[in-house]
Each structure stands twice: as C-alpha cells, then as structure tokens.
C-alpha cells in the first residue's frame, strides 16, 4: 500500500485516519443512495460500539444482537432522511440504539429480574475481551471526568436512566425521592454534563 | 402529565433525551418540540450529550452471523424515500453525478454494479488528495463483490454448511454451494498474524492443493472470505499460515480443515 506519511503515524488502517464524523457522514450519504458497500463499512466501523451500548442495557447477548440488527436495518431504511444539519451521524445512531434498547428493556420487564442496585454499582464498565481503542478510552475518560462534576443524586439519576434503562418513576423509587425531583436532577445533570463535555449546537 | 406548561415541558428535556419518560410523556414532549425552538435546541444538545455517554461504553464484538444477516436483509429491504426538504438542504458537492432521484431509481440491488460505479467515481472525485480514502473505496467495492457472493451462496438451492474448531483457538464455518461452485469461510476468534505472515486458503482434492486466496484476520478476530476459484463437489477447504504474499502450495500444517460434501 502507498505510504504518504509525514507524521510518525501508521496509516495502515484507512478508516481510522479520517475524522470519524466526516467519514460517517460520507458513508451515510452513500448509504442513502443505496450503496451496500458503504453500509458494510459503517457497520464495521460502529457496530461493536452500538452492540456495547445495547448489551450494557440488556445484558443478554442474543437479545442485544437482535436489537443491534434492528438498529442497523433502521439505519439502512432511514438513511435517505438523515439530515446532517440536525446533528452528527453517531448521535443519530446512538439515539436510535438507546431508544430501541430501552423499549426492549421495558417490553421484557416482566420476565427480567431488575436488580435495582445494579444500575448504580455498574457504572464502571466491565472490560470485555475486546481491546479498547485510544479513541474510546479518551471518550470514556472524558465522560468519567464530567461525571465527577455532578452531585451524587444527579450522577445516580443520570446513570440509572441512561445505562440502566430505568424510567424516571423507577429512578424515583430506587433513589427514594419524588418524581419531580428526579426530572429536575436529570435535566440539571445533563446540562452540567453538556457543559463539562463542551457540547454546543 | 398532560400539562403543556412550558416550564414542566422544559423540565422533562433531560429525561426525554435519556429515554426515561413514559410513552405518553414522550409523545407530549415530541408534540411540544415542534412549537418550541429553544426546547429543540436543548434536546438536540442533550441527545448529543447522551450519545457521548453511549460512545464511552466498552465495545462488544458482534458475531459474524449478525453481519451476514444484515447484509442479506439489506439486499432485499427497500429504503425510505428521502424527505425533499432535507435533501435540498444537503450540501450536494457531487454536481456532475446523477441526481439523487436518478440514482434512487437505479438502486434496486440487482442493478448495483452501475450505481456503485457512479457512486464510487463521485466519491473519489470528492476526496482528491486523500489517497487513503480512495483505497478505502476500492476495498469497499471488492468487499461488496465478496458480500454479494456470500449472499448468493446463502440464497442458493443447495446451500450447505459445516463448522469446525480452529487449531490454536476460534471457530470456522464453511458455507458452500456446489451449484454455484463457490464457498466462503466465516471465522471467529482468529489470531492476528505478524506482518510477514498471511492466512492462505486452499481448495484440496486428490490432485493436491490449489490456492484460493489470502486474507488477514480483522482486528477483532472475526472475519470472512469468499474463496477464489471454483469449488468442486467433495473438495476440502484448508487454511494455512504462509509467508506474506502467499505460497504456491501449503508450507505449514492447516489450522482449519473442513470438507464439503
């Protein structure tokens, strides 16, 4: 392969060399035109992280793969309607994945033992046998650092809701505070995280 | 929660972005979003924030079967038509390429080759200066041809499969069609090789082994490859580790050996 290296970096892996956001936008545009190769590329690029998030919520591996399949089929079907002005591709994908995982959690709630303590204890991710890329480690550290800026109650509420898939009424029960308080804490917590992580539209 | 009071709505923005609302509340917020630009902005920022939480989660490697299923589904699943408003708002830099609607009309999967060519050409033009990107697109085309072949094998009338363990760890599944004279090997947990080595595929019959191409294990150990050449009924498929570039005949013991019937 051609090597046009000016910095001491390894360009072996083409996908990593582009800005991920730019690459993903380019891929989505091609997927919107029916390009299955672009879909395959996007899948390779982001599926492990989508499956990681879904598994975090559902825990069951085969159910998580099912939901991930639904997410990617939705990406394929709705790519022509993706509007880059409304946000990044990754935001779009993770929003779909989270919502579908939460819907699945709620649907299977009756048969699922929901250990109400798990959500809190479990914020530190279990390290699977997959090596983390530097990119993911940096993002992880960014989130962890931002999390330390929240009050205890904000942190617990946000963690239970996002990583546990609990509704605000469930969060209220678990934390033994009124529902109204949970809503306020979720909003305040998200505003603080937004500012800490430098999100601005 | 039927109140449309702005304060109570705004207060739900966090819970909304975290998917923590009940179905009724979710719909109420969605309805309200259309009317309030400030809340739209707040929700968009919170969604991005939430997605950062999602992106920080440790990845989990999907099974090879998931991708195979998806590529098969995608080949037969129509896409939604693009919303006109958002299409026209897109910065379309591909001015010389066919219009979106022209391409849409061609995008039935069995007409792919023409469409891919146009799309690939346009993409290459878009990223002049990005040698790496051009390579990605060529790789993507080769991969698409492989994917189409894998889908064809799976869709064949005489589709067969056999699974074996990989010597040294991992699993391999051979799928084949004698009718198509084609096979593919799907592997999980395959070790990464040093850069001076490659995996090489072989079709083996009574006359000996003929090369069916080389491949590298993906970073996650999950990979698949349609074999080059033609499968004959009863052929055995083998994988060996060879010096980079491949060998004319196997020089090491196979790590995978599986016989078609």
Automatic annotation (TrEMBL), chain B:
The keyword Cell membrane applies. GO terms for molecular function: sigma factor antagonist activity. Keywords: Cell membrane, Membrane, Transcription, Transcription regulation, Transmembrane, Transmembrane helix. GO terms for biological process: regulation of translation. The keyword Glycoprotein does not apply. Coiled coil: none annotated. Residues 117-255 form the Anti-sigma K factor RskA C-terminal domain. Residues 12-49 form the Anti-sigma-K factor RskA N-terminal domain. The chain crosses the membrane at residues 109-134. It is a single-pass membrane protein. Its main location: membrane. It is found in: Cell membrane; Membrane. One of its GO terms (cellular component) is plasma membrane. This is Regulator of SigK.
